[in-house]
Design a protein that fits this description.
Two copies of one chain form a homodimer.
Chain A (H helix, E strand, L loop, with lengths): L2 H19 L8 H11 L6 H12 L4 H22 L9 E2 L2 E2 L1 H5 L1 H22 L2 H11 L4 H11 L6 H26 L4 H28 L2 H4 L5 H4 L5 H5 L1 H19 L7 H12 L3
Antiparallel strand pairs in A: 1-2
Chain lengths: 287, 287
């Protein structure tokens, strides 16, 4: 199977599983469940869940068995997007070419929708019964992970560019959750500690590369391709990698981190071809 | 030990455990961790965790062993208060006599603080390793539980009083989480299904009584005693039990539900004296 077929196949698998785990839109409160569907089933690329699945597959675990953590990571990710877009946060009106949650359902319902998606992620993991997965998500998501990154990201607006600060934000806001997605796949695959360390390094490096590539694309791409206003980082005075290190250095860093990520896979006596291909694909993506 | 000593003793136990489970205020991002401490260590009565402990004790489990679920329920409860108070939600400036989170830290940080507390609750349960407890909290907290209640509560403002709607809101917004607290104590105590059913009924009834008593006190008490503006339900056009059924009926309902709660304990061959005493105490509380 070539990579684009693989990505498409697993995107559908994840989309179906996401839909299955949400209460139907006819369930009371209807507007809450409608908002949850709207924010989750939105044509997302499902990078995080697919990385989780690919990591599990490296340990000969079928995709289906990795779906609960894969879907949980995506639910949590969606919840952060809903809260990030709120008027009191980044105040974004458009995501993936569609109006954001609070534009359609109002800010109060958007707060509750994000909360409900977050809880749904942990419910799915609890139903699965493997506490190691819940712990991985919670630690990566919490006040020492994604939330820390978002907090410093907001606080960094209008601040002087700082290499240390941009790295803290990228590591926490983005890389930790991508690393968690990879690690959760490896945990399902009963990876030993050495294998888990290799995959953690892989996940972290592609996570950092992913965020720098995002910053680059925000400056160099168009509204149509991104599904949101290009240049919004600049407009919101966000602290970005190109702002600190320049565009040339930023593009080089994406390549360097991707090389390092792929190198981290080499000690593994597992079939990591797919993970390797995804890393290359992410480096070269245009949106 | 008399009840007020018992409550005080366990309040301290819970407060210490809450403090222990939060990253220190010196941990980066400092303002996030400061906000988490501020919103959690606020002199709360700790009714939910104490009910969890008392339920576990009925099964001869020492309080200390019930602390992880007890503390997790309280963390989750605190997270809902932070989000409820937001300007785009109930827009409350005062809680327990102190400025609310968003007044001190701003709305964006308040959104993130609530998120972080929610995740911390699930992290604590994951560290404890009993998925049944995580599942109980997630199901009670999510879009078919507390969030459903908050959603309908917001939507009900300015709507015509309806007995069905006020019961849906009270059940979901309040009773389900109090029931979860009791059930989690019973789960730690390895209650059998019949015992769990009895304690579920107990938790649900006192939860409903608790919320009706809250509605009554909001109309009949003073700012000083409540630590927040009395009459705020009326001012915010909230749908309350007295608004639907009248004050006399509301007060009678609190007593009736408490009687039913205590009756639900009677089939248990366990020492439920403390649970009984807490139910009476909640019925007679003045704040």
């Amino acid at each position: 199977m070539d990579l684009s077929t693989y990505l498409k196949y697993n995107q559908t698998l994840v989309d179906d599983a996401l839909k299955d785990c949400l209460p139907s839109k006819e369930t009371r409160p209807e507007s809450l469940h409608e908002a949850m569907h709207y924010c989750v089933l939105n044509g997302g690329k499902r990078i995080r869940p697919i990385l989780c699945i690919a990591a599990a597959e490296a340990f000969c675990i079928p995709a289906k068995q990795a779906l609960p953590p894969a879907v949980a990571v995506e639910l949590y990710h969606c919840s952060t997007l809903v809260h990030d877009d709120l008027p009191c946060m980044d105040d974004d009106d458009l995501r993936r070419g569609k109006p954001t949650c609070h534009v359609i359902f109002g800010p109060a319902n958007a707060v509750l929708t994000g909360d409900a998606l977050m809880i749904q992620a942990f419910q799915l993991l609890a139903e699965n019964g493997n506490s190691a997965l819940s712990l991985e998500l919670a630690k990566s998501a919490g006040s020492l992970g994604v939330i820390a990154g978002q907090m410093e990201d907001l606080a960094a607006e209008n601040k002087a560019p700082s290499a240390e600060l941009v790295e803290f934000i990228h590591m926490n806001k983005t890389a930790i959750l991508i690393r968690a997605a990879v690690r959760m796949g490896a945990i399902v695959g009963r990876a030993d500690p050495t294998e888990l360390a290799s995959l953690s390094a892989f996940g972290e490096k592609i996570g950092l590369a992913f965020q720098i590539a995002d910053d680059v694309l925000d400056e160099t791409s168009t509204d149509d391709i991104l599904g949101k206003p290009a240049g919004s980082d600049l407009e919101q005075h966000k602290l970005t990698y190109p702002a600190v290190h320049g565009m040339v250095e930023a593009k080089a860093k994406v390549k360097e981190l991707t090389r390092e990520a792929i190198a981290a896979l080499s000690p593994l006596s597992r079939n990591t071809e797919t993970l390797h291909a995804i890393a290359d694909h992410l480096m070269n993506r245009k949106y």
